[in-house]
Amino acid sequence: MLYKVGVFIAFSIFALTGCARHDTNKPVSVIFDSDIGPDYDDVGAITILHVLEQKGEARILATIASNKYEGIAAILNIFNTYFHRPEIPIGVPKGNAVSMRDSQHWTDTLLKRYPHAIKFNREVPGAVTLYRKVLAAQPDHSVTIVTVGFLTNIVGLLTSKGDSISPLTGEELIRKKVKLLVSMAGKYPSGKEFNIYNDTKSSKEALEHWPTKVIFSGFEIGEKIKTGLPLVNDKNIQHDPAKDVFTLCIPMAAADSAGRMSWDETAVLVAVRGYKPYFDIHPGRIRVAADGSDTWDDKGKGQYYLVAREPASVVAHTINRLMMQEPEKE
Fold first, then answer.
1. What separation in angstroms does the CA of 112 have from each of 73, 74, 122, 158?
2. Does the pLDDT value for residue 124 go beyond 70?
3. Which of 43, 74, 131, 304 can bridge 281 by disulfide, Cβ–Cβ 3.0-4.6 Å?
């Protein structure tokens, strides 16, 4: 009963703040922060984000990497270019950060097959610098940040000092400009998840001190939502980077025979369209332990994790349809 009351209260709060279902008449301004490389659900995530922008539901302010292997800036540029938005700014961590490539070598495949003006990470600004520049230029309380990777940049932004871009500290800039953080991070109500434990120190500091509302899409959400096979099997879709990646990678793992688990796509879907009708939310606050495991504090405030509402197949159908839409003709 207490759980149901908590969810009802959360529904009321989000209905008032517009986070349950976004105003479809106004695009959601999004900064996309991804480790795009170790797994390939990031490919589905950036694809549906671009498609949602084409539909007028989103406005992509920046695509930022939380991983720093050489070539990740080029990978982001490939997707931005494919969707006719090569000018979208890209940032890559310049300090200590995870450097992790994909075992299937899909990144190498895309770098050979698709155009990209950016070739090297050194050609783009640092992730935190780009965050500060983009946020400083936006209206107050207007930006949604969606993270589908490590929290390295998030803690870097949070702890940044005032500079020539803005006299505000990172925390002040976040409070002034960001309305919502949606993060694919953690496992709920408790567990140990890849994006958190690979940079535990950053995850703990960032998630426990983040000053705006947060919605987490946990491991248990994306684990059940299998996508990609309709895209792979559609003979009418040709020369599509997402199709190339899913076609290459799905056969490499028996666990992906029904499609790849869709962790990152769910975060983007919620960031742009809100959590309804696909999910409910459970209020509280995350606690990250020294070993990178997470638990949920029901007495905490300001954060929420997704709880499945619609069957996984329904969410998968929505994601698949979005992934299968090609760029509009110029």
1. 14, 11, 19, 36
2. yes
3. 304
What per-residue confidence (pLDDT) applies to 330?
A: 72
The pLDDT confidence band at residue 20, using thresholds 50, 70 and 90, is low
Residues in the chain: 330
Please identify which residue in the block is written with the tokens 């589908």: 148
The whole-angstrom separation of Cα 103 and Cα 113 is: 18
Q: What is the mean pLDDT of residues 313-329?
A: 96
List 178's β-bridge partners, or say none: 143
Q: Quick one: DSSP state of residue 122?
A: G
Specify the pLDDT at position 25: 77
| Strands of the chain, DSSP E | 28-34, 58-65, 90-91, 143-148, 178-183, 190-192, 214-216, 226-227, 260-261, 279-288, 293-297, 303-308
Per the omega criterion (within 30 degrees of 0), is the bond before 189 cis? yes
pLDDT at 62 exceeding the cut of 80: yes
Residue 227 is encoded by which pair of tokens?
Answer: 């996508």
Q: Given the DSSP bridges, would you call strands 279-288 and 303-308 parallel, antiparallel or unpaired?
A: antiparallel
Q: Residue 24: how many CB atoms within 10 A of its CB?
A: 13
Query: Which is it for strands 303-308 and 214-216: parallel, antiparallel or unpaired?
Result: parallel
C-alpha 156/C-alpha 256 separation (Å) is: 34
Is 270 within 8 Å of 182 (Cβ atoms)? Answer: yes
Report the pLDDT averaged over residues 22-36.
Answer: 88
Beta bridge partners of 183: 147, 216
**What is the reported pTM?**
0.93
Q: 3-class SS at 246?
A: helix
Q: Which of 195, 210, 182 is nearest to 306 (CA)?
A: 182
Cβ contacts of 304 within 8 Å, gap of 6 or more: 10, 14, 213, 214, 215, 216, 281, 282, 283, 284
